[in-house]
Amino acid sequence: MKPFAYVRATSLPEAVAAHGARPGSRYLGGGTNLVDLMKLGVETPDTLVDLTGLPLASVEETAAGGLRIGSGVRNSDLALHPLVRARYPALSQALLAGASAQLRNAATTGGNLLQRTRCPYFQDAAKPCNKREPGTGCGARDGVHRDHAVLGHSAHCIATHPSDMAVALAVLDAAVELQGPSGARTLPVTAFHRLPGDQPERDTVVEPGEIVTAVTLPPESAGLPSRYRKARDRASYAFALASVAAVLDIAEGRVRHVALAFGGLAHRPWRATTAEERLLGSAPTESAVRAAVEAELARAEPLRDNAFKVPLARNLACDVLNSLAAQDPAADTPDTHGPRS
């Protein structure tokens, strides 16, 4: 591992200044991803600016009835927080589906959002990877890509984002708070991660020196039926082949609010806006749900070895949405749209 300097920040301004004064700096939270990449030689920071001493580890109820989650809150604490479990169950489910208990005890909210892809070509400094070293090519495209993207990929990168938590935050309409050299700003979590395009080295829209300080959950999605499900190669300690987070609110037999997002399919959590538009205001019959999900996944461009992800994601999404619809007593009406194939 390359030698590096270490700064333990005691305030946000000190952290931002320390990062800005040292080219090649990285912020350190739980370190569950960054330290691994340093050991592999993928990340080679000159300086680590430690954020663990900052007051960023609380979960607070907002005046409007939402939640403000500090970026230093550990994944295990967030998953088991009573307000999260009661009001935003999909978020708790997603966190508990990710990693092992030991890693959840160390990983932070901000670090989870900022974690980098687990693509083996990115993690192996001897292999070509445009994300790690722009211009060297994408080794996965003609290589091993069973786990890679089927939506939103480009000729330069087909990696997927590994976060479970981020998929749940996408359907809950969360926002991310940032603090940096130019001050503070807030943006929707759906605008936080980027598709690869011709700059796959940029995972997010975070500017140099910016710190993720908090994630906020709005009161509008609090208490609505929500769920997260994940398909993986083994029962635990595995990243998603495909995952689904959904929120579904039904009134008088019609969909009053719906949000759907996929994980494991793209460079960022994929908000399924086409499916949402088709379902909003309709009766959530099984055939209507299936048609909406298939319309969304019609945009998929699977590669040689990962076409199985499309029906896998479709079946997951249909199962999650149908199970949420079944929670509503008014959703017992028979499906009148004909047999399903």
Describe the structure.
The strands form 3 sheets. The chain has a 5-stranded antiparallel beta sheet. It is globular, with a radius of gyration of 20 Å. The longest helix has 18 residues, at 309-326. Mean pLDDT is 94; it is low at 330-341. It is 28% helix and 19% strand. Strand 11 (254-263) and strand 12 (270-271) form a beta hairpin. It is an alpha+beta fold and 341 residues long. The protein has 12 helices and 12 strands.
Layout of helices and strands, plus pairs?
Elements (H helix, E strand, L loop, with lengths): L4 E4 L3 H9 L4 E4 L5 H7 L6 E4 L8 E3 L5 E4 L4 H5 L2 H6 L1 H9 L3 H6 L2 H6 L5 H4 L41 H7 L3 E6 L2 E6 L22 E7 L8 E6 L10 E10 L2 E10 L6 E2 L1 H7 L6 H12 L11 H18 L15
Parallel strand pairs: 1-3, 2-3
Antiparallel strand pairs: 4-5, 5-8, 6-7, 6-8, 9-10, 10-11, 11-12
Helix pairs in contact: 5-9, 10-11, 11-12
